[in-house]
Structure formats: C-alpha cells, structure tokens
Specification:
Rossmann fold, alpha/beta, single chain, binds thiamine diphosphate, 4 domains, 22 strands
Length: about 600
Amino acid sequence: MVFDKETMLWLSGNEAIALGAWEAGVKVASGYPGTPSTEIMGNLARYEGVYAEWAPNEKVGLEVAIGACFTGARALATMKHVGLNVAADPLFTAAYTGVRGGLVILNADDPQMHSSQNEQDNRNYAFAAKLPLLEPSDPAEAKEMMIRAYALSEQLDTPVIVRITTRIAHVKGVVKKGTRCELPEPTIEKMPAKLVMLPGNARVRRQAVEKRMEEARRLAETLPENRIEPGSGTRGFITSGVPYNYVKEVFPHAPVLKLGMVWPLPEQMIRTFAASVEELIVVEELDPFIETHLKAMGIACHGKDIIPNQGELNSFIVRKAVDPDSIGALFEPLPLPMRPPNMCAGCPHRGLFYGLSRLKDVFVSGDIGCYTLGFLPPLSAMDACVCMGASVTMAHGMSKALGKSGEGKIVAVLGDSTFMHSGITGLLNAVYNNSYASVIILDNRTTAMTGHQDNPASGRTILGTEAPALDLEQLCRALGVKRVVVVNPHEVEVTRKVLKEEIASPDLSVIISRAPCVLLPEEVRRKKPVYFTNLDNCTGCSLCVQMGCPAISWTPLTPEEAMARGYREKQKGFAQIAEVQCAGCGQCAAVCKFDAITRREEQ
Ligand SMILES: Cc1ncc(C[n+]2csc(CCOP(=O)(O)OP(=O)(O)O)c2C)c(N)n1
C-alpha cells in the first residue's frame, strides 16, 4: 500500500468518527462529555460546515439531534453508555417517528469501567428500542461505518446506533480521508402522522417499526460490513467490534464470521456459517448478546460458558478460554502496579472535602466528577454515589426517611456540570417537598473530570466563543432556595464553619463552593507563589497530611531519629512539601497551627 500523507491520516477512533460524520455531511451535532466518547464532539466542532455543541445532558443532546434531522439535515448525538440511559426516553420514541435526514446516536461503552460507574452493554438498547446497531473493529472501519450508518438511517427511515468501546475510541490507526458529501438544504415540512407521537399516530408507526426491522434483517444478509472470512480447521468464530482483532490475532487461520451490523442479525448468513464448521464459538465482550440470539435461532454454540462476561477481553483471555492447553508463561500478561487516583495538588475540592471530613455524624450523598475522589482516604468524606445528579435526590429521600432524626446530618455534593446535567430538577423537588438537606455545588468553572469541557455556566461555547453564563445563585433562588451561600474552598477554616452552620440549619440551603479548577489553562498560567515547610516548626501533628495533597509527604521518625533532629522524643514524623508539585493554593498553610508552612515570597 502506498502511504499518501495527504489522504492517509493517523487518527484515534474518536477522531475517525468525527471525520466520518463530517464526510457523511452531518450538519448538526450535540453531545454531553463522557469518557470514552468526549473527543468526538471536540473534533467535529472544528470542521467547516458543521454546527456542534455541548448540551447540558444527553437527553437534551439527542433531542437537539432529533429536531435537526426532522428538517432533513443529517444529525449526530454523542454520549457514553450511561448517557444513553439518560437519553432513553427520546431514543425509544424516535424509533417510532423515524427520521427525515439521517440520525446517528454514537454510543461509547466502557468494558472494564476504566472511567465509569458501571459496565453496561448497550447493544441491548438496539434490541429493546428496535434500532439497527453497527459496531466497528478499528478506527478506519469506524469512519466508514459512520457513512454507512447515515445511508442506512435514511434508507430504513430510522435512527441508527453506532456502538464503540473504549479500545476503539482511544486506539490509533490509519484512516483514509474522503470528501464531504453534498446534501440538499434543510427545510420545514409538516408531517404530523410521522412526527407527532400521540397514541393514534404511534400505533400506526409501531407497525412501521416492525416492517423496517424486517427490511433491516434482509439488508443485513448482504451488507458488506457482515462478512464470512473463510479459513481452515473445523472451529469457527462469530465475533464483532474489538474482539474481532483478538480472534484474528490468536486464530489467524480459523474461519470467522465478522459482524459489523450486530442488530438485527443476518440469520441466513449465520446459519450458512454455522453449518460450515463443526464447532462454533461466539467471542464477544460483556453480555451474551449475539450468543443469546443464536441460541434463540436454535444454533448450538459456545460463548459465555468459556468467555468471561465481565471486563474487557484481550488476546490472552481469548486464547486461554478457547485453547487453555496452548497457554505458556510467555503469554501471561504482567500485572501493572496499582496507582490510586487522587485530587490534584491545588484542587479546590480538597478544601471543601477537608471541611466535610471534620464534621461528625454527617452523611455525604455524593455524585460523579473529580470530587468523587473525596471518597478516598485520607479525606474519606463521601458516603454514597450512584449516578449523575443522584446526590440531591438521594439526600432528599434520606431526609424524608429519617425525618427529625436526620436533621442537620444530610448533605448532597455535586459539581457544576453535574448540577446542570441532572441536579436542577432534584433541587426543585427538594424545595417543593420541603427537604432539610443541604446541597453543595462545587463550582470549579468547568467540566474537569472529562477534560475541561465548557458548560452553560462557564461563559464559553465548545469553540471557546463567548456565551451567556448561568448565574447559579440566581437559579437556586429562583427555584425557591432561601439560603444560598458562596464560599471559597481554599479558605479552609471559613469553609468548615459555613458548612457546619448550613448543614445544622433546619432549612434547605445551597452552599456554592467556588474556585476555578487548578488545571484550567488560565490558572496554570497565573503562577502563584508556592509553599514550603519550615521544618523547625513542624510538630508532626499531621493535619496538613490529612488533606491528602500529593505535594505533601510524611516522613515517619523513631524516637531516636526525632531526638537527633531536635524534635520532641514523642514526635512521630514530619510533613514536607514538594515545591515542584505545589500549586500555591494555601490550604495546607490554612490548617497548620504551628507556622510550619510559609509562602515562598514571605521567606
Ligand atoms: C450520564 C453520564 N454522563 C456523563 C458522564 C461522564 N462524567 C462523569 S463526571 C462528569 C462531569 C463532571 O463535571 P463536574 O460536575 O463539573 O465536576 P468536576 O469534574 O469539574 O469536578 C461527566 C461528564 C457520566 N458519568 N454519566
């Protein structure tokens, strides 16, 4: 193959998907960040002729895309797997309306939970919502499948799900660049029987859904993305997505049925393939999705009886499952050393969680973001965490269950992006139903966890242009919250006092903990003087160490060592700041009672 630098690109799966969407002529794209899907939208926004945006949540994003496709424009919604739970309501009914312009839902699953709160196989959504689903095996295929997905969407009059997993999103590969297809301009066209889903119309569309799935089933038999790769031997594999690569690596000569369209399945092709081999093995990650449907067709196969149904697969796991005798020590992967996550040095969330960790008998209903790390020792100040937005609603539920006995003890903690994603309605409910829980909004001016995406409160769009910034205080007041307090979490002692007061109050209160993420480019540029430890003054009280800042280390001492250093015999050790890591937040100095921590400029 001749490598042409102009047309052959080295792209991640996410970059390839953005390119595929652009080539397919996508006009409007909306999404909410979520690893591993986030970079798709950031990339797509830079292409000429595409309008791309960050939505406050996935339901909003999908509905924006649905609206856009109703004008005849091609549209895209992107999200991680749990995002599709949030967007499930419009998803299931968009299956009924169908589309005018092509509509693709890009869904990224995260087997192994590299950065997710659960492991979910969203191929099941395609079955449940009666939608076609395509699944690529590498970045080049991911790009081509986006183009195929739009063609199918319009041909079958249906939204199409393209499902990727973390490996596809982040792996890099050679992708051939094409040109953008020219599409007619969007128009307003009234089609109430198709677009207004009240029961009378929906019953008619319900039949259209079944007819379309029949047609999709027929189409699946000849779709080039579903192919039999002949081979030698009596054992054949059916596989799709990333596991296809493992099968090809471990059994390069075996016959393989590679499925690019995983729903609906090409039944005839599967039967032909099954009849051509003596033993059939389905290699798929997570649920026995293909296997279950094969068994429903009456086709005998191995699957989850030998292949794990949890976590990611790899070549080693596949080899071990299929051919345990062929495994030698050579193939055994080396375990990686553990590296527990931690809030960054200078993270404003630390000051807030330090304050919470000092409060006795308080239950912290947590949420999802960088601040979830407040759960870990030494702060250990989060007691529950389920899904985005659930902190407020769970806290309210607890307050109702506990009644008087829980007063002054229940607090919800969530980030600014999470609050706008799905915390607002929870707060509205808490006010409406007279909760006494306190709600802390950690306003670090960005969506930090997923890589600093802008949001409705940051004052910038996805392209960095100016946008109206939501006023969180005003919003909370408009929802009916009487007590709204703003604190600077770097002022650790003030924050602790405010927390104590507000949580003890019998009324619902909102505490906005406001300080920018220390890794925002403007914060990194704004060089702050760092802190250093004055070792003569350190008494070894370890209060600063209990903040869990990665810049602070603890050196334990024996009584003899303590004496030799001029400390009291009983001093157990001393704390030290690594100045190269210090971000200058000053939280440690604020808790030190012995003048042992000083700003560099004050030396
Ligand atoms: C439904 C859903 N969508 C997306 C995500 C991915 N995700 C996890 S936390 C988070 C946002 C965190 O931002 P914020 O609440 O502002 O907290 P920060 O990380 O800035 O502290 C996102 C988008 C998710 N876990 N669940």
